[in-house]
């Protein structure tokens, strides 16, 4: 089969890779209908995160089950499925508490590489959620978004305790931040402020429910947010970048007793304990337990009540993956969908 | 009046200070019945936190109202009162959300110095809680504990989302940690593990409801806690020290999705973002909003259902404050009560 590999910083290739096969009786093999490039794929692409190439890439996917191992009972060949970017058994104590991305048997799909024609999904019963039938083509991007970027934005909003009557701020106008806006709207937020300097992203944020835009960053942005909120800061802040600056901006944007939901994969972040202490905020986040939210998100998409697929503003054949990475790196695209 | 001052690291004096008087119409003057030395007073005493002496000391207090300003309506001369270590109006949006220590008009009592015969309490209506009558002498230490150390341990437990069926770990066996144990027991924890190397503190922890003791610290202590909890870690961890080591021990002791409640005043702490991210824990804490809990805590003490005053294992006249500090610094005492 054909699949994407990262040979080194800035060097994306599409190569022949061995067809996946069932290894464990809990595995499923899927034919990938659509995959995509994640903001977190840009960390190794940019060389910020070390990688030893050629490394298979991709951890987001929707597809059709081709084959299942002997112990798989909840999905069957022919099912259209969405899965999380972490395989999880969905039965351990951590999964049952809703933290499937930290399942005691968790396996990252990134190691498997779903930017490919086929993929082996471990722990298929715990990981995959079948849709009610074969989806219409127009909702495939949205179902794909549920696999990570929507689930991650959703978790950011849940971790930030977004709810009715609250003012929410979103740090980061990438796909996760934008879908954090969508989640905040669905979860009943009264006011949703996005920090964004890009007109196209501001526009999509408004479509998803943002009520205000702040163009300024850092402490200047924080000061403007405080002005909007009677000097107090937001009740809930979604951090969707993962840098020192974005994390501090999120903490400083939150009122005492408020909640920061951080879902940007942290790189080079060190949170000063004394500032955190006196901020009085709640901090929660990490790799989103997408599986917790998948059944609900699939339903919302199936019923066309949300349209997270709009974050894909570039669709390319798998063979053109290199251009898909480049466009995101250069911010020409919010998010690239790849068709194997 | 007589009052304690810190002249410099290790140099505690008891000197003549000006009698406090009503400055704002929202002030009250109290005659201090009992005050005490806080673990956080040891930071400047040890020179870890800079101070410019001579600085008035003390922020915990119970006493009898002597005089009130013209706008004070909820307490009156003759009332026995307990107050938080932060004065708060108890009416602003932050107070109403339960974060009185971060009230928009918050004033730290530490700047006033309650280790003295009298003290001016700002925002008396919002800060002070009157007891149902004059307390018997035996519960005065417990009421004094409510002013900070009990309220802080209680907040640590609440911030760590302690509740029925949960396993709780407590990092720190000082007075706050010990009262974190008491709070965890009252809040229904199933199992309470205290990290402690001191026999006397282990004993008091057991009296307060600890079910297990771990003598080891750091990663060795974490490994033992994980062994006790099926490899997962505790649901709730109370951090009651404020060092880098204690904070990391707390985070590492918590299972994914679990809660760290940190109440040790952070000194020199920097939390690595990547480790925090992948830990999947909730972090919450800071200066305890003691005022939120005071009515409940005063009731529990008044009815003799809890006995937090046991943490005072040394009682001295105010004039002997220097020895009170020394005894805590050298760990000869858990906590020193001072009688003006």
UniProtKB/TrEMBL annotation, chains A, B:
Q: Would the keyword Transmembrane turn up in this protein's UniProt record?
A: no
* Similarity section: Belongs to the zinc-containing alcohol dehydrogenase family.
Instruction: Give the matching InterPro entries.
Output: ADH-like_C, ADH-like_N, ADH_Zn_CS, D-isomer_DH_CS1, GroES-like_sf, NAD(P)-bd_dom_sf
MF (Gene Ontology): oxidoreductase activity; zinc ion binding
Q: What is the name listed in the Swiss-Prot or TrEMBL entry for this protein?
A: IMP dehydrogenase
The Alcohol dehydrogenase-like N-terminal domain covers which part of the protein?
A: 25-123
What species is given as this protein's source? Actinomadura logoneensis
Q: Keywords on this record?
A: Metal-binding, Oxidoreductase, Zinc
Where is each Alcohol dehydrogenase-like C-terminal domain found?
175-285
Annotated Pfam families: ADH_N (PF08240), ADH_zinc_N (PF00107)
Task: Tell me which domain of life the UniProt entry assigns to the organism this sequence originates from.
Answer: Bacteria
For activity, the cofactor(s) needed are: Zn(2+)
């Amino acid at each position: 089969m054909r699949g994407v590999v990262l040979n080194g910083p800035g060097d994306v290739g599409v190569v022949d890779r061995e067809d996946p096969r069932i290894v464990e009786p809990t595995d499923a093999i899927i034919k990938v209908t659509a995959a995509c490039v994640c903001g977190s794929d840009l960390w190794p692409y940019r060389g910020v995160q070390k990688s030893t190439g050629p490394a298979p890439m991709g951890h987001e996917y929707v597809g059709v089950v081709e084959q299942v191992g002997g112990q798989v009972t909840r999905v069957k060949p022919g099912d259209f499925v969405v899965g999380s970017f972490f395989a999880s058994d969905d039965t351990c104590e951590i999964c049952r508490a809703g933290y499937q991305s930290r399942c005691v048997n968790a396996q990252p799909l990134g190691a498997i590489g779903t930017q490919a024609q086929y993929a082996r999904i471990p722990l298929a019963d715990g990981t995959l959620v079948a849709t009610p039938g074969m989806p219409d083509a127009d909702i495939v991007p949205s179902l794909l978004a549920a696999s990570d970027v929507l689930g991650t934005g959703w978790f950011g909003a849940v971790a930030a305790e977004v709810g009715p009557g609250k003012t929410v701020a979103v740090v980061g106008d990438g796909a996760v931040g934008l879908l954090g806006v969508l989640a905040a709207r669905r979860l009943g937020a009264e006011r949703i402020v996005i920090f964004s300097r890009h007109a196209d992203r501001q526009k999509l944020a408004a479509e998803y429910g943002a009520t205000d835009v702040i163009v300024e960053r850092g402490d200047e942005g924080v000061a403007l947010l405080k002005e909007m909120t009677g000097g107090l800061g937001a009740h809930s802040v979604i951090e969707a970048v993962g840098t020192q600056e974005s994390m501090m901006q999120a903490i400083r944007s939150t009122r005492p007793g408020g909640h920061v939901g951080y879902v940007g994969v942290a790189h080079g972040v060190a949170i000063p304990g004394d500032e955190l202490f006196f901020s009085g905020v709640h901090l929660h986040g990490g790799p989103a337990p997408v599986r917790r939210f998948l059944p609900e998100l699939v339903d919302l998409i199936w019923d066309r009540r949300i349209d997270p697929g709009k974050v894909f503003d570039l669709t390319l054949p798998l063979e053109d993956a290199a251009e898909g990475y480049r466009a995101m790196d250069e911010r020409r695209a919010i998010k690239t969908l790849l068709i194997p």
